[in-house]
Design goal:
This protein is an all-alpha fold. It has helices spanning 8-35, 38-55, 61-73, 95-131, 138-156, 158-166, 170-193, 197-221, 224-232, 239-266, 269-277, 280-305, 308-316, 320-349, 353-356, 364-388, 396-407; strands at residues 79-80, 83-84. 80% of the residues lie in helices and 1% in strands. A two-stranded antiparallel sheet has the order 1-2. It is globular and about 65 Å long.
């Protein structure tokens, strides 16, 4: 039986990817605050919120496909709605089953990308027209069109990140993230300095989408042993096999998708709602604080997330001792890092915001409340990821109820 283990390089690159993502956001934020008006800044965060909402249309397929690829790489010869039949785990990889799962992911993401692009082009455009009715139209529609193209590419090529994660290549995934983020920061910074405003920021976002996915495809080709094994399978992947994999994976994916939607409603959906009821300027201020709080919990959760593929592989191999080790070390590391991150942003970062936009109002109490809320929510998410390693989602109704109560 093959086994996926978390290497030190995976943890290091996971942190590099997280830190670069945070740093690019923090470096880009002063530029956005300086070169965009309050309304444009608020509209930018509406774009980001809509983009994140559109990505929810992958509806749990990303982690579910990745998890099932882990099972196949770990020796599973059969996939079921429970994930994998542990009794079917053997030495070696069923290359045809692996090719079928990957092909199914490509087909699903292509369909989702087309559907999302159609929705953004119609309903999304009507929403942007409503919230930005008092602003100039040309730059808004050019930037919105670039954003729609970015979301389409992100969804269409999401299979590449999914397969990398399924291979257990956390390092490769984060190398691709670093390349994409560096491209976004460089392009956005140059174009903002040149006076391109929202359009420049949107072009940078598009650069991130293109280079992230291209880099992920390149990283996949470095797994020469797996790629050689996949190409050794000459059997064609039939449509009936893709349909069977889809039905097997969808059993868990739609539940995971509802959980992700509930998490979105509990966090980022407020940026969309506030743009309707409070205005774009207030939305921008709220979204800035939320961005910092999100960055902290992303930083803190990087350590336990590094072990998710290994956790799934340990489940496939029936290794309870390894599973206990990943749970205990992961959650302790998470809370220590969250405390350090919150203190650092509160003491050193937030006091600097008025230097870039004097009229910005920093609510320190709101920020601490956000951090506490997100810390508890992410802790719950980490434990849920441990549970879902066994392809079970018993917590779906709880997430939906909490999101409904929070929004009401």
């Amino acid at each position: 039986m093959s086994s996926i283990n978390t290497r030190k390089s995976d943890i290091v690159w996971n942190y590099i990817g997280t830190i670069v993502s945070m740093a690019s956001g923090f470096v880009l934020l002063p530029l956005l605050m300086h070169f965009l008006s309050s309304s444009e800044l608020g509209l930018w965060y509406v774009y980001v919120a809509l983009s994140n909402f559109a990505m929810l249309f992958e509806f749990g397929f990303n982690p579910t496909f990745a998890r099932n690829i882990v099972y196949v790489i770990s020796g599973a010869q059969h996939l079921s709605i429970e994930g994998c039949d542990i009794k079917s785990v053997q030495e070696g990889i069923d290359w045809h089953l692996l090719n079928t799962v990957i092909k199914a992911s490509k087909v699903i993401y292509a369909i989702l990308a087309v559907v999302v692009l159609a929705l953004l082009s119609t309903i999304g455009s009507l929403y942007i027209s409503f919230v930005a009715s008092g602003m100039g139209s040309f730059d808004i529609w050019v930037s919105w069109g670039l954003f729609c193209a970015s979301v389409f590419l992100n969804l269409y090529f999401l299979w590449s990140i999914t397969v990398l994660r399924g291979y257990g290549d956390i390092a490769g995934e984060n190398k691709a993230v670093v390349i994409g983020r560096a491209a976004q920061l460089s392009v956005s910074a140059i174009l903002l300095l040149l006076g391109y405003g929202l359009v420049g920021a949107a072009i940078g976002y598009l650069a991130n989408a293109i280079l992230l996915r291209l880099s992920a495809v390149v990283m996949l080709r470095k797994h020469k042993e797996i790629e050689k094994g996949r190409h050794s399978d000459t059997m064609p992947v039939e449509a009936s096999s893709i349909r069977e994999i889809f039905l097997t994976i969808f059993h868990v994916a739609w539940r995971d998708g509802l959980v992700q939607l509930a998490v979105y409603a509990s966090t980022q959906a407020m940026s969309i709602l506030s743009s309707i009821f409070l205005g774009l300027a207030e939305t921008g201020t709220y979204s800035i604080l939320l961005q910092f709080a999100n960055a902290i919990y992303n930083f803190a959760s990087t350590y336990p997330k590094s072990f998710f593929p290994a956790m799934q592989s340990a489940f496939a191999g029936g290794d309870m001792e390894r599973q206990r080790e990943y749970v205990s070390t992961g959650i302790v590391g998470y809370w220590g890092l969250f405390a350090i991150g919150t203190a650092g942003v509160y003491i050193f970062v937030l006091p600097l915001l008025p230097l870039f936009k004097p009229n910005v109002s920093v609510d320190y109490g709101l920020f601490l409340g956000m951090c506490l809320y997100l810390a508890l929510l992410q802790q719950h998410s980490i434990f849920c990821n441990y549970i879902i390693s066994m392809n079970e989602i018993p917590y779906m109704c709880g997430y939906i109820a909490a999101a409904a109560l929070g929004e009401s």
